[in-house]
Specification:
Layout (H helix, E strand, L loop, with lengths): L4 E10 L3 E4 H5 L6 H8 L3 E4 L7 H16 L8 E5 L10 H9 L5 E5 L5 H14 L6 E8 L9 H4 L4 E11 L4 E9 L7 E3 L10 H5 L5 E3 L1 H22 L9 E4 L4 H11 L10 H4 L6 H9 L8 E8 L3 E8 L3
Parallel strand pairs: 4-5, 4-6, 11-12
Antiparallel strand pairs: 1-7, 2-3, 6-7, 8-13, 9-10, 12-13
Helix pairs in contact: 3-4, 8-9
Bound molecules: oxa(dethia)-CoA.
The site of oxa(dethia)-CoA has 20 residues, from helix 2, helix 6, helix 8 and strand 12.
Amino acid sequence: MNKIHAAITAVNGYVPDYIMTNKELETIVETSDEWIISRTGIKERRVLRGEGLGTSDMAVEAVNGLLKKRGIGAEEIELIIFCTTTPDYPFPASANILADKIGAKNAWGYDLQAACSGFIFGLSTGAQFIETGKHKKVLVVGGDKMSSIINYQDRTTCIIFGDGCGAVLLEPNEEGLGVQDSILRSDGSGKNYLGQKAGGSARPASAETVANNEHVVHQDGKAVFKFAVTNMADVAAEIMERNQLTSDTVTWLVPHQANKRIIDATASRMGLDSGKVMINIERYGNTTNGTIPLCLWEWESKLKKGDNLILAAFGGGFTWGSVYLKWAY
Ligand code: UT7
């Protein structure tokens, strides 16, 4: 019997309607469209508006569209891995909430937290359940409502992040297509450079933590940039090398969209010209777990069976990694 690979057989995405432009941010904090574009590549980002709406509501849109595209019912899904840093609630898991909302009655699920690397951690984890033969239909969802943890008075973070969600379906493939390899890394000593200071068990929410703005994203941008730019490029180059890929045989780089300068440095390290790099940061900013599936969704019509894709990400924690996959349809 041929080896079973986990192949992506459908992809879909959802971004909220509301567009927050750099011009709008100029009216809120001391910044400029020119500064934001030149330092990050971002022109606008989406924001989920509406009382009581959480990340799972964007996931419902993405997943319902995906199921329709694939022509299957929600009850056929066996496992949901919901990669998110902004779950609807600390618990229960957003995967459970999503399963209930879409009618995935036969699925079990869990949330996966690895900040901006979450989607590739989830993809790699989901692939194991397919490769071992345990499951035949695994949903990997990546999405965040970053606007729920952003301080719109902090110009160093509010310009970067946006809301959005994407999802892929993993199914067995015996033609050698799908996930081929992954390199996943974590370094907890990076915890002080990017994260939320309160709201967890070490520092539960209190009137004081709220007054101190400790429930929002805090980032030492310069420090994170330095780690991100080297580690994301290193890991992408490493996965190419160990799979004997060259700049000619890699069809696409699918990078986490944190900063256009980090993406360019990664592509340059891999020897890829910009025509082989998926970039939509100018329209969505950094949607954390949403960036990579949203790219796959937007580039789906250009992808061909057998294309070699390198996914690469870096995130808070620190977490980073790369996945090599062969597109299956
Ligand atoms: O996805 C998870 C991982 N996260 C990342 O990968 C993010 C990595 N970091 C970055 O992308 C960049 O560091 C930022 C975009 C966050 C910042 O860009 P930078 O080129 O590193 O700027 P900086 O922090 O060195 O700041 C340069 C100057 C400072 O002024 P002074 O001290 O030179 O006078 C900042 O106060 O720019 C100032 N500044 C701004 N000016 C206008 C910072 N934010 C803004 C702003 N508008 N929004």
